[in-house]
Automatic annotation (TrEMBL):
Boundaries of every HTH tetR-type domain copy: 14-72
UniProt keyword annotations, A-Z: DNA-binding, Transcription, Transcription regulation
Record carries keyword Iron-sulfur: no
Gene3D superfamilies the UniProt entry points to: Tetracycline Repressor, domain 2 (1.10.357.10)
PROSITE patterns associated with the record: HTH_TETR_2 (PS50977)
Protein name (record): Helix-turn-helix domain-containing protein
This protein's record includes keyword DNA-binding: yes
């Protein structure tokens, strides 16, 4: 088999896995107890295709969590937390994360096994968040005495809450502006 044929097979397999994971997100978000057969039907593939790609339901769930975490980590990295001006980075990261979280809400709420790819990625994301918060503090956007781990946890809560009403239809930039404004300015009166 030629190299082009191998690449085509690999691309087809990757597409198949992506379609299955997208269907699993939709189906499991509506019914967390859905079967592999229901997921296969939603993906438009044979049940055997799912079983060929994933040994069992748990393997599918783990792949779903890892895929969503990879996309979330990429969304954070695309916001350039190390190089963009902190306020710009915070806005970009927030808008990017809201888009990913809106599309992969079920998968991103799954508990992660310690040491799993998803858990390692979540730790990476937390470190990247602290990086941008440190830069924001250096730019005097955050009080120098603020506990940045607490600020990060509040930020995560704001992200979760902002997606509660209409995760799919919300404008990520408008929500990002609201989240960042609330995080940095709070709810107190403006000067």
């Amino acid at each position: 088999m030629g190299q082009t044929a191998v690449r085509t097979l690999r691309a087809d397999a990757e597409r198949s896995v992506r379609v299955i994971l997208e269907a699993a997100e939709r189906v499991l978000a509506e019914d967390p107890g859905a079967s592999m057969e229901q997921i296969a039907a939603a993906a438009g593939v044979a049940r055997t295709t799912i079983h060929r790609r994933f040994a069992n339901r748990q393997a599918l769930i783990e792949a779903l969590a890892s895929s969503a975490a990879r996309q979330l980590a990429q969304a954070v990295d695309d916001g350039r937390p190390d190089t963009a001006p902190p306020l710009v980075a915070m806005h970009r990261i927030t808008a990017n994360v809201l888009q990913v979280k809106g599309a992969w809400a079920f998968a991103l709420e799954l508990p992660t096994e310690p040491g799993s790819e998803a858990a390692v990625l979540q730790q990476h994301i937390a470190r990247r968040c602290i990086t941008v918060l440190e830069r924001a503090r250096a730019d005097k956007l955050i009080d120098e005495a603020a506990d940045l781990d607490w600020v990060r946890r509040v930020y995560y809560a704001l992200l979760r809450e902002s997606l509660q009403d209409d995760p799919a239809g919300a404008d990520p930039d408008a929500l990002a502006a609201r989240v960042i404004d609330t995080l940095l300015q709070g709810a107190g009166p403006r000067a």
